[in-house]
């Protein structure tokens, strides 16, 4: 059923259709099969003004105009469009040819992540205050082109962009996806594939869950056995793996090229069996436990009373901080059931200053809100009942919160009781459930102004490869992305499910194996 076959067949069928159909050059975009309008985009834009007289058609003569500061986005756009169109699409500073112009400069209304996109008969202009904004505009432009533009081989046009203007900017600055590479390890290429998939929906944070009971996934030069031994297996007993520091830097740079900031997580004081198994001296009794390949939680704890625990964390946090350009490190802090509440306070009292000494700010699961947090720390709410006094108190004290309620935003929850992958401890989460929530009412006492944004975590107890990732993330991830980006007033399931259906041909061409929820008319 999964990606390899269905996806490839889908892509081939589409490519063949494109080649055998007569050119539809004279018809306006809206009359073509798989019609796209400016309002079809996910996340739905803030404001759209269509002009059916102003469609733009890419031709072999089209150029991409971008000055030095916009060049990276211009090259990225060319890389998207060249394989399927077969056009040269030179990226140039100035041109008199019909063009897609990427313009950096003062742009009203759109802030530091938004953009304006204008389509006329003569060309497309994306304008923004920042390259992040240009990149977001390019993702919109991409969805305005036919789905077959996603093909990596030349296919037939026409390549028509519907005319009009979009003014667009995000509701929240933080729109994240988390990938658990600890329960099952995912290769650099698998993570890059996911980065490309999430970037299309304007996700701008990738939280990598790099260490848990079942595996330690990043090389730490001062404590090498963490990776070589602690990373040597995974859930189910497979061979596991880890990223060398060079590979991690490569992932961070790849994410940055998609305007995504990596937030590395080293979970502590619980979820640490892989570390405890690697170094006996980290255990209170000096005895290393065996490696763990099951899926229980809450049984491990770093030894709060030993000095070496903090020497270890100083080394680990120091190395990870040095490899990570983003401002935030995630220190986990969840489900520390094997740590007493007193020890938890003491532990966080030691660790928070270590992160600060290495020049980073703290993100953590919402349990960290129980400790004395600096105002810059970001608790990430993951519970299901929307009530947590400590999270509300942190918000009242000025901390910003990331919203990941497990019964809405966890992409690893099964869709229904017969879903082949996933867990259901937070419930079954169908596409409508993942879309039907509002961050500003998700947690009692945490209003709009206290919310940094949303994140869709994908835990990997049951997932082993890209095929599995895609089946869980699609089609739910675009819904979380829309909740994070689009205005609250635009929230509308009936409109959303129609736009979602129109994404499917894109996923087929991209080889994304998605769950064909019966809640959506995939046509
Ligand atoms: C979590 O799901 N334990 C953050």
Question: What does the model show?
Answer:
- The chain has 523 residues and is α/β, with parallel strands linked by helices.
- The protein is 33% helix and 17% strand.
- The protein has helices spanning 3-20, 71-85, 131-144, 188-199, 225-228, 245-257, 273-278, 307-323, 341-357, 389-396, 406-409, 431-435, 439-442, 466-473, 476-485, 493-510, and strands spanning 47-50, 56-58, 63-66, 91-92, 99-104, 115-120, 123-128, 159-161, 164-168, 174-180, 205-212, 215-216, 261-268, 328-332, 361-365, 378-381, 401-403, 451-458.
- Helix 2 (71-85) links the parallel strand 3 (63-66) and strand 4 (91-92).
- Helix 4 (188-199) runs parallel beside helix 6.
- The longest helix has 18 residues, at 3-20.
- The radius of gyration is 23 Å and the shape is globular.
- It binds acetamide.
- Acetamide (ACM) is lined by residues 334-335, 365, 382.
- Its EC number is 3.2.1.52.
- Belongs to the glycosyl hydrolase 20 family.
- Keywords: Glycosidase, Hydrolase, Signal.
Briefly, what is this?
This protein is 33% helix and 17% strand.
Q: Please bin the fraction of helical residues.
A: 25-40%
Alpha-beta content class = alpha/beta
Please write the CATH class name of the largest domain.
Alpha Beta
Major sheet: arrangement of strands: 10-11-13-14-15-16-17-18
Rough outline: globular
What is the beta-strand fraction? 15-25%
CATH topology of the largest domain: TIM Barrel
The CATH superfamily of the largest domain is known as: Glycosidases
Radius of gyration: 23 Å
- Are any ligands bound, and if so which? acetamide
Q: What's the architecture of the largest domain in CATH terms?
A: Alpha-Beta Barrel
Assembly context of the chains: single chain
- The counted number of beta strands is 18
How confident is the prediction overall: mean pLDDT?
94
Tally of separate domains: 2
Q: Which regions are unreliable across 5 or more consecutive residues at pLDDT < 50?
A: 1-34
Protein name: beta-N-acetylhexosaminidase
Keywords: Glycosidase, Hydrolase, Signal
Catalytic activity: Hydrolysis of terminal non-reducing N-acetyl-D-hexosamine residues in N-acetyl-beta-D-hexosaminides
Pfam families: Glyco_hydro_20, Glyco_hydro_20b
């Amino acid at each position: 059923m999964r990606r390899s076959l269905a996806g490839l067949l889908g892509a081939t069928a589409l490519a063949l259709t494109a080649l055998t159909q007569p050119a539809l050059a004279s018809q306006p975009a809206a009359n073509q099969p798989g019609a796209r309008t400016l309002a079809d985009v996910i996340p739905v834009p803030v404001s759209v003004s269509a002009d059916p007289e102003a469609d733009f058609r890419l031709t072999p003569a089209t150029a991409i105009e971008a000055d030095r500061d916009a060049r990276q986005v211009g090259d990225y756009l060319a890389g998207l469009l060249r394989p399927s169109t077969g056009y040269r699409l030179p990226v140039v500073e100035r041109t008199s040819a019909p063009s897609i112009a990427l313009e950096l400069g003062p742009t009203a209304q759109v802030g530091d992540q938004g953009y304006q996109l204008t389509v006329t008969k003569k060309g497309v202009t994306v304008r923004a205050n920042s390259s992040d904004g240009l990149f977001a505009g390019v993702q919109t432009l991409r969805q305005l082109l036919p789905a077959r533009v996603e093909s990596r081989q030349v296919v037939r046009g026409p390549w028509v962009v519907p005319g009009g203007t979009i003014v667009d900017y995000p509701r929240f600055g933080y729109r994240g996806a988390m990938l658990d590479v600890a329960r099952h390890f995912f290769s650099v290429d698998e993570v890059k594939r996911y980065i490309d998939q999430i970037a299309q929906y304007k996700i701008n944070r990738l939280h990598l869950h790099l260490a848990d009971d079942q595996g330690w996934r990043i090389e730490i030069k001062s404590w090498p056995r963490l990776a070589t031994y602690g990373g040597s297996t995974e859930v189910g007993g497979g061979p596991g793996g880890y990223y060398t520091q060079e590979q991690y830097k490569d992932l961070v740079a790849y994410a940055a090229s998609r305007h995504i900031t990596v937030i590395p997580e080293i979970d502590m004081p619980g979820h640490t069996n892989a570390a405890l198994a690697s170094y006996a001296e980290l255990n209170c009794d000096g005895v290393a436990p065996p490696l763990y390949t099951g899926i229980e939680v809450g049984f491990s704890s770093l030894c709060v009373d030993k000095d070496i625990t903090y020497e270890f964390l100083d080394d680990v946090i120091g190395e990870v901080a040095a490899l990570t350009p983003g401002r935030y490190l995630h220190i986990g802090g969840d489900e520390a059931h094997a740590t007493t509440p007193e020890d938890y306070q003491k532990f966080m009292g030691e660790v928070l200053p270590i992160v600060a000494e290495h020049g980073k700010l703290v993100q953590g699961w919402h349990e960290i809100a129980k400790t004395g947090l600096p105002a810059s720390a970001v608790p990430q709410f993951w519970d299901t009942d929307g009530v947590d006094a400590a999270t509300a108190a942190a918000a009242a004290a000025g901390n910003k919160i990331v919203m990941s309620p497990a019964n809405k935003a966890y992409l690893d929850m099964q869709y229904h009781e017969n879903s082949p992958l996933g867990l259901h401890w937070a419930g079954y989460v169908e596409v409508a459930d993942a879309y039907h929530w509002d961050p500003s009412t998700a947690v009692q006492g945490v209003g709009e102004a206290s919310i940094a944004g949303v994140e869709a975590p994908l835990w990997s107890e049951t997932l082993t490869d890209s095929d599995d990732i895609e089946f869980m993330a699609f089609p739910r991830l675009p819904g979380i992305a829309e909740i994070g980006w689009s205005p609250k007033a635009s929230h509308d399931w009936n409109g959303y499910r129609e736009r979602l259906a129109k994404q499917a041909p894109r996923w087929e061409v991209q080889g994304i194996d998605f769950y064909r929820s019966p809640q959506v008319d995939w046509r």
